[in-house]
Amino acid sequence: MQTDLEQMTNMIRSLPVEDLDKLGKLIEEERRAKSRYENGDSYVQEKIEKYKKARKWINEHTQEYMGEWVCLEDDQLIAHGKDGLEVHRKAKEAGIKAPFLHHVIDESLPFGGW
């Protein structure tokens, strides 16, 4: 009888290359998630850096994606479009656990709220 690890190893060996890349990213994410309890400060710092990269990308690409929703992973565009729910769905299909979505609008206009 095979152990769970042996079964998993056999399954991994049968995966195509593109799935191995996704699995590698998933394993790295899980490793980081499990180590955050040991080093909470680095986890917060990592999240701040990810946000800074995403914000920089948004600032550089605002005109290209005006009026659209964008999903970013660090400074990488994962999905974009007019429908935020569709962009979120595409991000989840791409394997993003917690998609960072942003609606690109002209923020230079004054807000005329109540």
- Give a short account of the largest sheet: 3 strands, antiparallel
What's the helical proportion of residues? 40-55%
Principal-axes geometry comes out as: elongated
Class computed from helices, strands and strand pairing = alpha+beta
Number of strands: 3
Q: pLDDT under 50 segments (min length 5)?
A: none
User: Could you tell me the strand content as a percent range?
Assistant: 5-15%
Helix-strand topology string = HHHEEHE
Question: What is the CA-atom radius of gyration, in angstroms?
Answer: 19 Å
Q: Which sequence of strands runs across the widest sheet?
A: 2-1-3
How many H/I helices?
A: 4
Mean pLDDT: 87
Quote the distance from N terminus to C terminus: 69 Å
Task: Describe what you observe in this structure.
By secondary structure, the chain is an alpha+beta fold. It has a domain of 61 residues. It is built from four helices and three strands, in the order αααββαβ. The longest helix is centred in the middle third of the chain and has 22 residues. The termini are far apart. The model has no long low-confidence stretch (mean pLDDT 87).
List descriptors.
114 residues, alpha+beta, 54% helix, elongated
Layout of helices and strands:
Layout: H1 4-13, H2 17-35, H3 40-61, E1 69-73, E2 76-81, H4 84-93, E3 100-103
Antiparallel strand pairs: 1-2, 1-3
In short:
The chain is of the alpha+beta class and 114 residues long. The protein has 4 helices and 3 strands, in the order H-H-H-E-E-H-E. The protein has a domain at 54-114.
